[in-house]
Design brief:
Elements lengths: L16 H14 L5 H11 L32 H6 L13 H4 L9 E6 L5 E4 L10 E8 L4 E11 H8 L7 E6 L19 E5 H4 L5 E6 L2 E2 L9 E3 L12 E7 L6 H5 L23 E4 L6 E2 L7 H4 L13
Parallel strand pairs: 1-10, 4-11
Antiparallel strand pairs: 1-2, 3-4, 4-7, 5-6, 5-10, 7-8, 7-9, 11-12
């Protein structure tokens, strides 16, 4: 079964490919953006009207790398669709209601604790995290387990940089992530839709892979609540449910973490959750997907198209058993 709820998407809502390619050509010629002013000017000048500024604060000091790791050359999905078609069950199970229900979500002050098997456990103010590594724009493909996909221009920094800062111990082999638990702000946490708080996990070597991003923004602006503000994980070769939102705790451990969806439906959602068109979900095929904003289906790529970068992480692992 494939989601078919976006037939009413207008072509005017889709970022123009010519404008996007012109922007990337400019970036490659200009190198790094030196300041937020330069980045904001870039978006205003080269993105179609109505797609660049939605009222969020511009992210300061963004570096636009001429060849960021894994960045897609595809046109990004429109800002409207990225921010108004969301899986965030803490607010609603209806993808079209999340943005409205999250509009008053408070993201400041916000601290993230990094603890467990590390030499230097620490609690970070979310606004101080960017000081570890200048935020970069990275344009990643995303594939949701239900059969839809997007291309998102994230702004963030490498998770590996944060883990280097806390110095994992030699016996640390996994990383556990925990979302905020606050039913007063996240209304669906009152119900037993899922076991709360939402939790996810990666192997440590997966977490250190350079593609893995801690995102603080998208389209050059601060991350909206419905997309996981103020800090979310981005693992582009895995299905979307691995990219946990609104993170408050990161724990390094020597034990594979229990994850929310694996606890809730272990037959359907495994720990690894690598995008694999050869392993069907029990209730639908994973062989094809539909990009939001498009009508036709496209074939799903192994590891979501990032096989060259990540397949070595799973050498010798049976991906049908370890789904």
């Amino acid at each position: 079964m494939l989601i078919k709820e976006e037939e009413d998407i207008k072509s005017s809502e889709i970022t123009d490919r010519k404008a996007y390619l012109s922007r990337r050509k400019f970036i490659k010629g200009a190198g790094f953006a030196a300041s937020v002013a330069a980045t904001a000017t870039l978006y205003r000048a080269l993105t179609r009207p109505g797609q660049q500024s939605k009222g969020g604060e511009k992210i300061t000091g963004v570096q636009v790398n001429p060849q960021p790791p894994g960045s897609s050359e595809e046109a990004p999905t429109s800002y409207q669709n990225i921010t108004h078609y969301n899986n965030f069950y803490e607010f609603s199970t209806d993808k079209r209601e999340v943005a409205e229900k999250a509009v008053h979500f408070t993201t400041r002050p916000w601290t993230v604790s990094v603890e467990g098997l590390v030499n230097k456990p620490k609690s970070y103010d979310v606004d101080d995290l960017a000081k570890l590594s200048p935020p970069q724009e990275r344009i990643y493909r995303h594939r949701c387990v239900e059969g839809w996909s997007m291309v998102i221009p994230w702004v963030g920094f490498s998770l590996g940089r944060l883990l280097d800062e806390v110095q994992p111990l030699s016996n640390a082999t996994y990383v556990r992530f925990v979302t905020l638990l606050d039913p007063s702000q996240m209304p669906n946490q009152i119900d037993d839709v899922l076991p709360w708080p939402y939790e996810e996990g990666l192997r440590l070597d997966e977490a250190m892979q350079p593609l893995v991003l801690l995102a603080t923004g998208l389209y050059g602006e601060t991350l909206p609540p419905q997309n996981g503000a103020p800090l979310r994980l981005v693992v582009p070769w895995k299905y979307g449910f691995k990219s946990i939102k609104s993170i408050v705790k990161i724990v390094l451990t020597d034990t594979k973490p229990e994850t929310t969806w694996s606890k809730y439906a272990p037959r359907e959602y495994g720990f690894y959750a690598n995008v694999n068109p050869n392993v069907d979900h029990p209730r639908w095929s994973q062989g094809h997907e539909r990009r939001i904003g498009e009508i036709s289906l496209r074939k799903t790529l192994l590891f979501n198209g990032y096989a060259d970068q990540v397949s070595q992480l799973y050498s010798g692992l049976d991906l049908k058993v370890n789904f």
